Amino acid sequence: MIPRLFVRARQQRVAARLYDSLVEQARREEFYRDCGVPDSLDGRFDMIVLHAFLVLRRLNREGERVSAFSQALFDCMFTDMDVSLREIGVGDLSVGKKVKHMARSFYGRAVAYEAGLAGSDETLADALRRNLFGTVTPAPEHTARMADYLRREAAALDARPVEELLQGRLSFGPPPAAD
To answer: Which of 111, 139, 136, 113 is nearest to 126 (CA)?
Structure first.
């Protein structure tokens, strides 16, 4: 029993480090300045979701052997969402409902992004317009930049050994630049 507690605690620490890395990438100003992602609460949430989707997608390709770690990362993300909602003044009675809504949003976006990656460029662009750019009408070049970025980063993560993620090592390529 005690060894499992140590393993779980280590997984949580590593998952938190991984989550911090993906949030750092999601907050890069180039996404908001050069790619048209709304610099708003919704836009920032969607950038975190997009990057978490990429990492969880890679982890899920490993199946059951990394499922506990994937869950630790997911839990870390939604614990952070809970804390963030409280920090911006959402009342205690509303936080649970909002977090559940955010979790449903995450799953919906993950399904849409996965279908987009498996489908045509237009399918992926549609998924991004509905989700990442859901509160604005993006310029076509912004959607194209983000679609290229999503495909590039999914391929890069697929090529990396999962052990790097399990050790908390995560890096992304640069955000798309304006032409």
So the answer is: 113
> Residue 37's Cα: distance from chain center in Å?
14
Residue among 170, 160, 163, 157 at smallest CA distance from 19: 170
Residue appearing with tokens 């993620």: 165
Tally: H helices and E strands in the chain: 8, 0
Is the confidence at residue 7, as pLDDT, over 70?
Answer: no
pLDDT for position 90: 74
Give pairs for 135-142: CB < 8 Å, separation 24+: 135/38, 135/40, 135/42, 135/43, 136/36, 136/38, 138/36, 139/36, 141/179, 142/35, 142/36, 142/37
| pLDDT single digits (tens) 57-96 | 999 999 998 999 999 999 999 888 777 777 778 777 778 7
How many angstroms separate the Cα of 165 from the Cα of each of 49, 127, 141?
Answer: 17, 26, 31
d(CA 40, CA 1): 44
pLDDT above 70 (res 168): yes
Residue ranges and CATH numbers for the domains of the chain are 2-163 (1.10.357)
Model-level pTM? 0.91
> Is residue 162 predicted with pLDDT exceeding 80?
yes
Distance between CA 117 and CA 131 in Å, rounded? Answer: 14
First to last CA, the chain: 56
